[in-house]
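Lecture 7 notes: from sequence to structure.

We start with a single chain of 184 residues. Read the sequence below before looking at the structure.
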Amino acid sequence: MSGSHYWRVRGIFKGGFLGALAACAFYFWRHPELPVWRSADLCAPAIALGQSIGRIGCFMAGDDYGRPANVRWAIAFTDPDAYRIGGAPIGVPLHPVQLYESLVCFALFLFLAWLSRRKKFEGEIILSYTLLYAVARFLLEYFRGDTDRGLVFGGALSTSQLIAVPLFLISLLLIIRRSQGIRL
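Now the structure, written as tokens:
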């Protein structure tokens, strides 16, 4: 897959995420009276739901496809556009990892909506989302087949797994500190 194709397909989420992050940072900078943790908590369930829906789009485009699989629920892309758009191999049974992640993110949405009514401190929802998504993403990466997403340590980990580890640790630390009433 060419570099321009990578950013055209995979860069959509990265660019959207970075743009949203920049817009939020700018908004909170312009409105310092707004409670950041409470606002982030309100957004977390919607982020998980949006990811769930987005992964269905990845599945339909043949993007972020899974490894070859010998399971009953394996899928094989037959439309050449799946290869042209997302790089998925044609006619090869694959783990439908996009649907795995869609289900995980939908379960996260339900859990976060439930937790929102029971939270004990500001930031608990967004930090729980970040911690749980980091774990899910780390594990789901083992089912991915699109190696052009980036591998490190001789292919032992994907770049997403490498990012998931510090996200998990930082989220865990912040959950512990905020649950003890330590302001950050």
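Residues 1-9 have pLDDT under 50 and may be disordered. Keep this in mind for problem set 3.
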